[in-house]
Input
Amino acid sequence: MSYLADWWTTSRKRVAKADRMCFDSIVILTSWMIWNERNRRTFDSKIKTVPELLACLEEEALSWPKFRVVLGLPGLSIGSATDYYSLRSKM
Output
């Protein structure tokens, strides 16, 4: 197994069973965003700062309905930037 798989399996056991699906989604989303950033840097010579990458991660996570339910946030139509930023300011 890889280091990530070992960490994921161990960390997952510390999360309440009801929240494991959300935890898995966060791990997958984070890995995906890092992979995309790696590709952007390698193939497009474009670089996002860590704060920019975290903002993109947050925005993407908040667009996932299941993640929003777990956080107890109201529904949000995808692409509604006004709603997103008004919610973000309340966090």
